[in-house]
Amino acid sequence: MVLKRKRKREYYKELKIVRGAFDERTLLVLYRLLNKNKMSAESLIKEGKESIILSGLTNKKWVAIKVYCTKACNFKNMSKYLVGDPRFQRIKKKRRFIVNLWCQREFKNLKIARNAGVDCPEPLFFEENVLIMDFIGNNGLAAPRLIDVKPDKPEEIYKKVLSNLKKLVENGLIHGDLSAYNILLHKKPYFIDFSHGVTLKNPLAPELLKRDIKNINYYFSKFDITVKDTEKLYKKLERVIREKVIK
Ligand SMILES: Nc1ncnc2c1ncn2[C@@H]1O[C@H](COP(=O)(O)OP(=O)(O)O)[C@@H](O)[C@H]1O
Ligand SMILES: [Mg+2]
């Protein structure tokens, strides 16, 4: 991945929105991925502890570019989630390697979720620690998170969230970090941030499912609607896990 000096300079100019936030290798991966797919990075959407989200453009279509930070990420926490995942056995304790796995996992999980008919961004490409997916929002303006809005029809949104959750479990995946912070409201609720997602065989699956249900019920119980009993809902979905894992 050697870039001619001039091209590199131009590219740094182009990516001035993120200069300083990424290490050299991340910048090169980003550059390569954007170039290969004829995309441009447009603006900073959100800077989190573990990732930075940019908006991007390709053929007048907006995309979201999620860059996993190799510097300040919560490394210990990340490896904990990956250790129990049978899909990722050979884990070296190397920060960059783990961060790349984290990215790969979000890509795979988003694919599973999309194939299951869950409302979530379509994952488009990934390379190392950079993931590109559909943009949820309008003209480069990201849709609000559920936590930031007061939905007009909370009952309807709640039903859709539960239906997405059920589809996920029935198709072998637990989101693992589901809450009003990781759902965008763009006419309907869209699940995002699948990097904590685990398959049903993961020993953490039941515990994470319970937490997901609790978080969702906690948010919707603030509205004047009937919220399903957390324990009953959990038991129902946990049965799906058991049946699937035994099969
Ligand atoms: N596909 C997307 N389309 C639009 N905005 C997005 C998309 N993915 C993430 N975002 C924005 O970036 C924020 C952080 O993304 P998220 O995947 O939750 O990362 P983190 O791990 O930092 O929580 C979201 O709350 C949302 O505002
Ligand atoms: Mg998030």
CATH topology of the largest domain: Phosphorylase Kinase, domain 1
% residues in beta strands: 15-25%
CATH architectural arrangement of the largest domain:
2-Layer Sandwich
- E-strand count: 11
The percent of residues in helical segments reads 40-55%
Oligomer classification: single chain
Q: What gyration radius follows from the Cα positions, in whole Å?
A: 19 Å
Name of the CATH homologous superfamily of the largest domain: Phosphorylase Kinase, domain 1
Major sheet: 5 strands, antiparallel
- Taken in chain order, the helices and strands follow as HHEEEHHEEEEHEEEEHH
Question: Quick one: CATH class of the largest domain?
Answer: Alpha Beta
Q: What count of structural domains?
A: 2
* Strand numbers in spatial order across the main sheet: 1-2-3-5-4
Which compounds are bound in this model?
A: adenosine-5'-diphosphate, magnesium ion
Judged by helices, strands and strand pairing, the structural class is alpha+beta
What coarse outline follows from CA principal-axis ratios? globular
Return the average pLDDT rounded to an integer. 88
Q: Distance between termini?
A: 45 Å
Low-pLDDT ranges = none
Helical stretch tally: 7
